[in-house]
Amino acid sequence: MMVPVRCFTCGNVVGEHWEEFKHRTREAEDPEDPAEVLDELGVERHCCRRMLVSHKDLVDIVAPYQ
Amino acid sequence: MEDYEVQFVDRSERSARFVVRPITPAFANGIRRAMIADVPTFSIDTVRFIENSSVMFDEQIGLRLGLVPLTTPPGEFERGDEVTLSLDVEGPETAYSGDLVSSDELVQPADENIPIIDLKEEQRLELEADAVLDVGKEHAKHQGGVAVSYRHLQAVEVVGDAGEFDDEEPEILRGVIEEQAADAAVETGGYEPENGQLVPTEAFEHDLTNRYPGKDVEVTDIDGAFVFDVETDGSFSVDELVVEAIGTIEDRATELKESIQL
User: Fold this and answer.
1) Mean pLDDT of all residues in B56-74
2) B64 and B102, same structural domain?
3) Most buried by CB count within 10 Å: which residue of A50, B30, B103, B140?
């Protein structure tokens, strides 16, 4: 639903990078390469990278049924 | 007391890599375990909800709040101490970790941009939370060290020239090497060959054939020298984490010594 606060595997805080990652790779006019964005954000390990790459925000989808 | 030599390879506020010697593998692992399980950090433990009309249950929000790292200055608090934080956000807006208001200046969210919950029109989140100081042994949310590891420092020995007609296969190595064959090495990644220098393998893209072109090499572990990779979640700096971890080992050693004295 919301982006996980920490990486499930190593415990690194990944939540704080989510909005910038989402903006730069999906919402921006010319989307950047996710791999390069993650490198710049300092999310190095592949356990932390998958947390952001594979995440989908579901709050907007669930909200009408509350 | 024995003296230890510590050399830094990388050093920043939240992550560092350093070589310690001479220590035994058992002591190296002791330091690693102490960094993970024995250095206390603040973490939200009890949450009182005043209003929660968001799409998530109270328990889910409580879990997310628990994972937010809180700054924990060493030496200021005792294990078990509590600090109260509050949060009051009204939709349409996202509640961030930075919206948490702490009753103690020293204990603040270490990262301010962690989304807690996205609130829509007419949704509201108001709560009071108690953060408690405890150790990683008790609950993983109290771990200050993240992905703490160590490995042997390695040395590369040139044993001869590579055969003229050998396949040019890469020799992959990860970690840190201590330069001991500067004559055969070439400069890579800004590391001029100089005996005794510590070279992270990133400098030659983890491939020994880039550093020692045309040479046949053998890699050996250096006895008693360990490379530590330490990261923190932001509760404190790496320096504080390592010093506190060593402190807990010393405390336990002293306690043991006293309790077995006749």
Assistant:
1) 94
2) yes
3) B30
- B261 found inside a domain: no
Asked whether residue B244 is domain-assigned, the answer is no
Its pTM surpasses 0.95? no
User: Domain containing B93 — which CATH number?
Assistant: 2.170.120.12
- ipTM, 2 decimals? 0.90
Interface of chain A toward chain B, CB-CB under 8 angstroms = 1-3, 5-6, 10-13, 15-20, 45, 57, 59-60, 62-63, 66
CB-CB: which of B53, B120, B231 is closest to A12?
A: B231
Between A62 and A21, the more confident residue is A21
- Whether A51 has a pLDDT exceeding 70, the answer reads yes
Looking at the structure, do residues B205 and B121 belong to the same domain, yes or no?
A: no
- List the domain range (segments joined by +) for residue B87: 41-136
Detail the residues of A annotated as belonging to a binding site for Zn(2+). 7, 10, 47-48
- Amino acid occupying residue B220: T
pLDDT above 80 for B59: yes
Q: Is A43 exposed, middle or buried (0-12, 13-18, 19+ CB in 10 A)?
A: buried
Q: What is the dihedral of CA A8, A9, A10, A13, to 10 degrees?
A: -20
HSE (CB half, 13 Å, CA atoms) of A11? 21
pLDDT exceeds 80 at position B10: yes
Instruction: State residue B1's pLDDT score.
Output: 61
The domain of A41 spans 15-65
- Mapped onto helix, strand or coil, the DSSP state of residue B50 is strand
> Tokens 């108001």 label which residue?
B126
Is A12 within 8 Å of B233 when comparing Cβ atoms? yes
